[in-house]
Specification:
Radius of gyration: 20 Å
Distance between the termini: 49 Å
Order of helices and strands: HEHEHEHHEHEHHEEEEHEEH
Helix content: 40-55%
Number of helices: 10
Number of domains: 1
Largest sheet: 8 strands, parallel
Shape: globular
Organism: Spirosoma pollinicola
Strand content: 5-15%
Strand order of the largest sheet: 5-4-3-2-1-6-10-11
Structural class: alpha/beta
CATH class: Alpha Beta
CATH topology: sialyltransferase cstii, chain A
Number of strands: 11
Protein name: DUF115 domain-containing protein
């Protein structure tokens, strides 16, 4: 009984401190609110770049085309991008926004920029964090393609009392910690008040590709649905720009914990906003969201009408 009391007091004080820190951050960055466009359809599909997306695109292409489509990061590299013609695109990787004409080691970003400039010939909303404003990449896109409209979202991580954090999320004044771009995309789509959000290609299986070499360096093979497997290899995951030291195993698994915890936070927030999130990925380690086949979900939606 006494131990439970101490635990409750400790949690209250922790939430109080986190809430005060969050309010301070919001007070500093409060002018950077997020103004989201109205949804175009009642249902959307958020497409992650995990390998399993190939299976989902084969089996569920027609279904996905009937929803508002949200793509992320380097999805544009895939041939299917031009066939899907997504209405929404989210980029949160900070490397995009320090990229310049002189950058020599990020051909992937250069390729994405080229596609946005020259091949996107339909209306598309690009969501980026507010700190991206004024970047070389955004300047090039806004100057060359009027079909792409840019929405800046406020990536201020807020924590604390649940009612307070949910209010800050809903007002676009803060977000959960977006350890992956999918968490940012889901937060934005929940705030756009879709009835149902389907998640595809969210394998979240990076732990399967972790290795240690003989020098105790942590290696990971990053696999995306648009990659050619023969071109991939395990690469060191460096924690500094000078590439002198790789992440430790403990740090890597802590990062994975933050990913999965972020999905749990979003599950509760989606329930609070009355938004149903369904993990329809062909393969996924995410256990926070309900899992259903597309046929089951469609049949249930039809029975509720």
């Amino acid at each position: 009984m006494v131990e439970a009391g101490f635990n409750s007091l400790s949690q209250f004080l922790s939430d109080l401190f986190a809430s005060l820190v969050s309010l301070l951050k919001v007070a500093i960055r409060g002018r950077h609110t997020t103004r989201l466009p109205d949804r175009q359809l009642p249902t959307c599909s958020v497409l992650g770049n995990g390998p399993s997306l190939n299976e989902s695109l084969t089996d569920q292409f027609d279904f996905i085309r009937q929803t508002e489509i949200v793509c992320v990061n380097n999805f544009a590299h895939a041939e299917v991008f031009l066939r899907l013609r997504p209405q929404d695109y989210v980029i949160s990787d900070p490397n995009y926004f320090v990229f310049t004409e002189q950058t020599t080691d990020r051909d992937d970003i250069r390729k994405t920029l080229s596609i946005f400039q020259n091949q996107v010939d339909w209306p598309m909303t690009l969501y980026v964090p507010h700190f991206a404003k004024g970047s070389y990449l955004l300047g090039k896109i806004e100057a060359s393609n009027p079909k792409i409209s840019v929405v800046y979202f406020n990536y201020t991580v807020v924590r604390g009392f649940r009612r307070l954090t949910y209010w800050l999320y809903s007002k676009g004044l803060g977000m959960p910690q977006a350890q992956t771009v999918i968490i940012a995309a889901l937060t934005l789509m929940i705030n756009r008040k879709f009835d149902t959000i389907y998640l595809f290609g969210a394998d979240t299986s990076w732990h399967e590709q972790i290795r240690l070499n003989e020098q105790n360096q942590l290696l990971i093979k990053q696999i995306h649905f648009y990659d050619k497997p023969k071109d991939l290899a395990h690469q060191p995951v460096y924690m500094d720009a000078q590439r002198q030291r790789t992440f430790s195993m403990a740090a890597q698994f802590l990062s994975l914990h933050k990913v999965f915890r972020g999905y749990e936070v979003l599950r509760d927030y989606a329930d609070y906003r009355g938004v149903r999130v369904i993990n329809a990925s062909a393969k996924s380690y995410i256990d926070a969201f309900e899992r259903e086949s597309i046929s089951q979900s469609v049949n249930q939606s039809m029975s509720n009408e």
